[in-house]
């Protein structure tokens, strides 16, 4: 269980870095922030678009795993402005929860 949380936290951190800095471009380019046409509470925090996959083989790919893990994080984490702040709160989220 601890190993799985460690992998998820690393993917979440890489996703945050890709969103905040757009580096590296090959990881940042597939990530797309979901835009909603209506204002609802669930749209307050930024969500990422989940790409469609046709096979189970594609699910571990970063373009799919990154948005899945990012969208599962609490809104307070997704609102962090800097990578350093995100990293601090992410560690608290995974190891206190």
Identify the notable features of this structure and list them briefly.
97 residues
Give an account of the 3D structure.
The chain has 97 residues and is mostly helical. The chain has one domain. Helices cover 55% and strands 0% of the residues. The chain is built from 5 helices and no strands. The mean pLDDT is 86.
In short:
The protein has five helices and no strands.
Structural class estimated from helices and strands: mainly alpha
Written as H for each helix and E for each strand, in order along the chain, the element string is HHHHH
Counting DSSP H or I runs of 4 or more residues, the number of helices is 5
Low-confidence stretches: none
Layout of strands and helices, then pairs:
Layout: H1 2-21, H2 25-28, H3 62-72, H4 75-78, H5 83-96
Helix pairs in contact: 1-3, 1-5
